[in-house]
Amino acid sequence: MDTIANLPSRPLRERDIAPLCADDRLDAVPYGGIPDADSIRICTIKVATDDTAHALGVDDSDGRWTRLASVDADDLVAADRRLDTALDEWVQTVYGGEFRVLKSI
Predict the structure, then answer these.
(1) How far is the C-alpha of 101 from the C-alpha of 66, rounded, in Å?
(2) How far apart are CA 36 and CA 95, in angstroms?
(3) Is the dihedral of CA 96, 99, 103, 105 positive or negative?
């Protein structure tokens, strides 16, 4: 997946999301991150390409983005649920209580 290679080696900011979505074949949505004084460092995103959706996370300590889960996006509700589960489990392990989910319910 080329998207990971194109991500910066750091958490994203809100301004980083729009350029990701400039490609018509890609849709990226922030899932959550770590609050800063004036914004949030986005450490997890969901990315949809064609018929597959991916959950991606970055560990602040090493700056590497990892694909945490990939699912068939034919059933968006089921895909969203499965990605949320993968993201929730990962952030608890990596970030614990300092993580804040941004996803609107």
Answers:
(1) 18
(2) 14
(3) positive
pTM of the model: 0.88
The single-letter DSSP state of residue 19 is: H
CA dihedral 12, 18, 22, 26 (to 10 degrees): 60
Burial 16-47 (b: 16+ CB within 10 A, else e): beeebeeeeeeebbbbbbeeeeeebebbbbbb
Residuewise pLDDT in 10s, the chain (105 residues): 567 788 999 999 989 988 888 878 888 899 999 888 788 899 999 998 888 999 999 998 888 999 999 999 888 888 899 999 999 999 999 988 778 888 654
For the chain, what are the domain ranges? 2-101
For the beta sheet containing 52-58, the strands, ordered from the edge strand earlier in sequence to the opposite edge, are 65-72, 52-58, 40-49, 26-35, 100-101
